[in-house]
């Protein structure tokens, strides 16, 4: 299920989302000494990253990771890691820990196995998950066009390798089952085009056709949708 929070301006959304996430992270650190957050890449979250980076939080006890990453060099314009380093791991958030999904040159079975062990012990379940959504209804790198779409929903491993056919780059993504355990899930989207995609996602039920449906329609999941014009 989902609740929608609408904003006239993207800057207001960015600040409101950052404030809400900050409260959750503070509470998590207070109750268990640490907190984890996975953010998404793409073009939407930059302003939110900047707003969150300026909030005074116990950053040294907070680990940031990505819901998914493209398997590209860190200096590539396509690197979500780079996006996070340049926009979120700044200002007050410079003290935060970052869990790298892109390790080494090749996404081998061995690398994946090591990452799965580390993610399970250090990050999961996530305290906060910020999802994005593509025009095709993908979220994280759960791509409807990929041969791995069944595995995206069925694997109990935290992470998997995905090769989208309609988007560039090999990807690593948290699986649906690991993402759905997140304690607080947000979907951050903006623009009328994304509203149309959201409405299309709400109009039918096939999750493998539009993976975002799994997060907004599953009665066990409560997704806060943040949308700005
Ligand atoms: C990625 C993402 C992906 C993204 C959506 C929306 O690395 O590609 O994590 O799931 O969130 O594609 O991207 P935009 O914000 O660019 O529309």
What does this structure look like?
With 229 residues, the protein is of the alpha/beta class. It has helices spanning 10-32, 46-53, 80-87, 109-122, 149-154, 176-179, 192-203, 212-217; strands at residues 2-7, 35-39, 62-66, 68-70, 97-98, 128-131, 159-162, 171-174, 185-190, 223-228. A seven-stranded parallel β-sheet has the order 1-10-9-6-2-3-5, sandwiched between helices. It has a three-stranded antiparallel β-sheet with strand order 4-8-7. Helix 1 crosses helix 2. It starts with a strand and ends with a strand. The mean pLDDT is 98. Bound molecules: 6-phosphogluconic acid. Residues 40-44, 67-68, 70, 80, 132-134, 138-140 line the site of 6-phosphogluconic acid (6PG).
Q: Percent of residues in helical segments?
A: 25-40%
Q: What is the topology, as strand order, of the major beta sheet?
A: 1-10-9-6-2-3-5
Question: What ligands does this structure carry?
Answer: 6-phosphogluconic acid
- Taking pLDDT < 50 over at least 5 consecutive residues as the criterion, the unreliable ranges are none
Terminal CA distance reads 22 Å
What Rg is obtained from the alpha carbons, in whole angstroms?
16 Å
Q: How many β-strands, per DSSP?
A: 10
Mean pLDDT: 98
Note the total helix count: 8
Q: Looking at the structure, what is the overall shape?
A: globular
Report the order of strands and helices: EHEHEEHEHEHEEHEHHE
Biggest sheet character? 7 strands, parallel
Strand content: 15-25%
Helix/strand structural class: alpha/beta
């Amino acid at each position: 299920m989902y609740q929608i929070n609408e904003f006239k301006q993207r800057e207001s959304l960015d600040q409101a989302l950052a404030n809400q996430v900050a409260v959750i992270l503070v509470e998590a650190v207070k109750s268990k000494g640490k907190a984890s957050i996975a953010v998404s890449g793409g073009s939407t979250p930059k302003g939110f990253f900047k707003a969150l980076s300026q909030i005074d939080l116990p950053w040294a006890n907070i680990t940031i990771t990505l819901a998914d990453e493209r398997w590209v060099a860190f200096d590539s314009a396509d690197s979500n890691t780079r996006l996070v380093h340049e926009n979120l791991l700044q200002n007050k958030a410079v003290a935060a820990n970052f869990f790298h999904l892109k390790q080494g040159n090749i996404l081998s079975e061995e690398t994946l196995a090591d990452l799965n062990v580390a993610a399970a012990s250090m990050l999961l379940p996530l305290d906060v998950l910020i999802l994005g959504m593509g025009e095709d209804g993908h979220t994280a790198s759960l791509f409807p066009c990929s041969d791995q779409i069944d595995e995206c929903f069925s694997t109990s491993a935290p992470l998997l390798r995905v090769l989208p056919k309609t988007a560039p780059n090999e990807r690593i993504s948290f699986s649906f089952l690991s993402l759905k355990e997140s304690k607080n899930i947000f979907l951050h989207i903006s623009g009328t085009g994304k509203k149309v995609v959201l409405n299309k996602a709400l109009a039918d039920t096939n999750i493998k056709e539009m993976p975002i449906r799994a997060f907004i329609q599953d009665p066990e999941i409560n997704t806060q949708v943040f949308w700005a014009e």
